[in-house]
């Protein structure tokens, strides 16, 4: 017998389906229906790709969040973060559930007004408020959350010219143990800037200081960070009470709760790592209740939760365009939705599933969108079954930020439908057409002459 040739051992990188404590990723089960409606029939009716929202899931998630806080604290109010998803139908569901509006631009402010929300129930955040925006918000009695000193001075100046007394809060940034710190918005707590701003507001006598606000970041997985944030705002409230005898009307803890999406490169799936609303509520309410704020002065607790209230309710369904092999032999599947409509693919490992029953075999696959751009990767590595051209896929948990950050690029942005509580479908945003785009363009007179037309007639 011939001696076997020695072969050098090699270490091969396992790119997909990394084992966690539960072992290797299991087979991806198809998702064929959403709230009892067949995804393939939605695609047939509304085209591919298509965004789908579940009204049931939105309302259930909202009620779950509200219960978590209101069962632990006497006065709780949610304000819907418009920039997370400002489709009017989605906003209306949150408003029907009792949420106020939280906006960060004049455009969002006008959108909230047009949605019929009373102007005193609009929280106006963000660093970009024009004088015109501020004047409007003051006349309307909206809640203005001041971001910086220039804005504070603008408001003080306006308050001297106007009969209405601006209702203001300050946004406070602080060290909550999460780095890098979010210190570009609002006034800093640790260096005394926040206290300085509060003193200037009180000294002006022209502003009504109604609240204290913070928004510590987004996709935060630490409940401890919220506990620290709530304690620091409570400390400011106590100091205001001591120095001015002012009982602040509300403390607004902002948004930022992690949704159940999985961040790129995480070891555990987001479904295992995201704290529940109960966990967040426990941390925040216990910090407020155990602070030195007098029981009779307990402020309203406002939450501006965005992502965690809407991510779960959104789906993106579509069609496989092709399969190919990359030069290293890996499989590539090309689908008809790219990162221009699924912005969150840049930081999430989105849960993408087949819609129809599939083979048992899975393979390490890269999923590409249809754009002619190298960055158009929907999932870098996923153990994915072979879907053929024309098969359907569905991507879960896409409800947050995609329909506000998406770009019209190469193709039209698709239809968005809502499945109501009885399983009826409603178109809530129409697919763009060539006319949509052309209606915004203007051709200068001298470019209207058609060169090819003239050539033909010569
Ligand atoms: C974006 C934003 C929110 C919502 O944040 P999520 O991470 O989506 O919960 C709330 N408040 C402010 C001020 C924001 O800028």
From TrEMBL:
InterPro entries: Ala_racemase/Decarboxylase_C (IPR009006), De-COase2_C (IPR022643), De-COase2_N (IPR022644), PLP-binding_barrel (IPR029066)
Key words of the record: Pyridoxal phosphate
Cofactor(s) the protein requires to work: pyridoxal 5'-phosphate
Transmembrane segments annotated in the record for this chain: none
Domain Orn/DAP/Arg decarboxylase 2 C-terminal: 310-399
Residue stretches making up the Orn/DAP/Arg decarboxylase 2 N-terminal domain: 64-309
Family annotation (Pfam families): Orn_Arg_deC_N, Orn_DAP_Arg_deC
Gene Ontology MF terms in the entry: diaminopimelate decarboxylase activity
Source organism, top-level taxon: Bacteria
Gene3D superfamilies linked: Alanine racemase, Lyase, Ornithine Decarboxylase, Chain A, domain 1
Any Gene Ontology biological process: lysine biosynthetic process via diaminopimelate
Protein name: Diaminopimelate decarboxylase
Name of the encoding gene: lysA1
């Amino acid at each position: 017998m011939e001696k076997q040739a020695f072969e050098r051992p090699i270490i091969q990188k396992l790119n997909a389906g990394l084992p966690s404590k539960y072992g290797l990723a299991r087979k991806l089960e198809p998702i064929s229906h959403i709230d009892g409606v067949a995804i393939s029939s939605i695609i047939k009716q509304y085209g591919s790709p298509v965004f789908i929202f579940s009204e049931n899931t939105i309302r259930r998630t909202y009620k779950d969040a509200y219960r978590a806080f209101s069962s632990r604290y006497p006065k709780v109010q949610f304000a819907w973060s418009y920039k997370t998803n400002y489709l009017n139908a989605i906003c209306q569901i949150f408003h029907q559930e009792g949420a106020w509006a939280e906006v960060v631009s004049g455009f969002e402010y006008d959108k909230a007004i047009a949605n019929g929300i009373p102007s005193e129930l609009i929280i106006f955040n963000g660093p970009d408020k024009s004088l015109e925006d501020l004047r409007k918000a003051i006349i309307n009695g909206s809640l203005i959350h001041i971001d910086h000193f220039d804005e504070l001075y603008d408001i003080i100046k306006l308050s001297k010219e106007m009969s209405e007394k601006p209702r203001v809060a300050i946004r406070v940034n602080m060290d909550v143990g999460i780095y890098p710190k979010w210190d570009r918005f609002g006034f800093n707590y640790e260096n005394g800037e926040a206290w300085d701003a509060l003193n200037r507001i009180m000294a002006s006598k022209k502003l009504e200081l109604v609240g204290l606000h913070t928004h510590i970041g987004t996709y935060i997985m630490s409940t401890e960070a919220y506990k620290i944030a709530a304690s620091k705002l409570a400390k400011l409230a106590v100091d205001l009470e001591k120095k001015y005898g002012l009982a602040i009307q509300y403390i607004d803890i902002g948004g930022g709760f992690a949704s159940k999406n999985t961040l790129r490169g995480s070891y555990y799936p987001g479904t295992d790592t995201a704290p529940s609303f109960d966990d967040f509520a426990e941390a925040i309410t216990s910090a407020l209740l155990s602070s030195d704020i007098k029981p009779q002065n307990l402020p309203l607790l406002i939450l501006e939760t965005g992502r965690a209230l809407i991510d779960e309710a959104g789906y993106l369904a579509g069609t496989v365009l092709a399969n190919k092999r990359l030069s290293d032999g890996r499989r590539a599947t090309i689908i008809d939705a790219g990162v221009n409509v699924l912005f969150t693919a840049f930081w999430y490992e989105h849960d993408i599933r087949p819609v129809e029953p599939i083979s048992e075999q899975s393979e390490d696959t890269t999923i590409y969108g249809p754009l002619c751009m190298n960055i158009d990767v929907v999932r870098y590595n996923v153990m994915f079954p072979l879907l053929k051209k024309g098969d359907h896929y569905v991507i879960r948990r896409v409800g947050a930020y995609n329909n506000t950050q998406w770009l019209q690029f190469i193709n039209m942005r698709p239809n968005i439908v809502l499945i109501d509580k009885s399983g009826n479908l409603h178109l809530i945003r129409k697919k763009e057409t060539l006319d949509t785009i052309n209606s915004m363009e203007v051709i200068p007179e001298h470019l209207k002459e058609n060169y090819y037309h003239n050539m033909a007639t010569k």
